[in-house]
Fold this sequence. Notes:
Blueprint: E1 10-19, E2 26-36, E3 41-45, H1 52-60, E4 67-72, E5 75-76, E6 84-87, H2 99-109, H3 114-127, H4 143-155, E7 161-165, H5 173-190, E8 194-197, H6 201-207, E9 210-214, E10 221-226, H7 231-235, H8 238-241, H9 245-264
Parallel strand pairs: 3-8, 3-9, 6-7, 7-8
Antiparallel strand pairs: 1-2, 1-4, 4-5, 9-10
Helix pairs in contact: 2-3, 2-4, 6-9
Amino acid sequence: MQNQQSTPKLELRNITKWFGPKDTGVCAVDDCSLSVQKGEFICVVGPSGCGKSTLMTVGAGLEKPTDGEILVDGKPAGPPGPQRSVVFQKFALFPSETVAQNIKFGLQMCGVSAAEQERRLVEQLQIMKLEQFRDAYPSELSGGMQQRVAIARSLVMQPEILLMDEPFGALDAQTRTILQEEVQRLHREHHYTVLFITHSVEEAVYLGDRVIVMSRRPGRIKKEISLPRDVVWKRGDIEVAAEHPDFIAARREIWALVREEIIAQ
């Protein structure tokens, strides 16, 4: 459960984002406020074009809000950096670099010592089950393996906050399911603070501690739904979880909210 008394790890306060001139351009999100507690996994869902990804890029510091502010531990977040690490839908790996080189890239840019780079690399290769692919190139990997590399490249920076923008959207259904279960395991074991954008209601219910439902554009927070931390639900694979009565009820409630917005577009 979220502790209402603690300072949020990440807070988006009254965020409005216009593309183009204010009041004559396109308003992507309007007066959105969202907080994420340390160790919490927050999923954001909504109809296509509702501003989910815009909200994430603003939270990551990659876009400046037209109005509002972003806070980390109650203080202005400032420019993007290793404190907030992003995983995108497109893998964005360097094709001429090996898996190891791709994962270590951010560490090299930050001037981390060679010994520490190697220690963190080995740790992430083990966590993401990539040991045998250390010297492979992206073109030699499946889409799912490439996304494992992209996630490892973010986690190796030891970010305080992980922002994920539909990271499994380009994957086939089987690979997506496996990576959903891997991310669930990673969060359970390492307690990362995560803001996760998705189109999939089922994915949001499976992964999230809370699900934020956004309205059609201009995106606003329509409803926040807290999810139980049931052992069977959160520790089973997704097929087991999907049969849990609370999972079914939450999925039905959230889909009804999203569907209402889609129809009204």
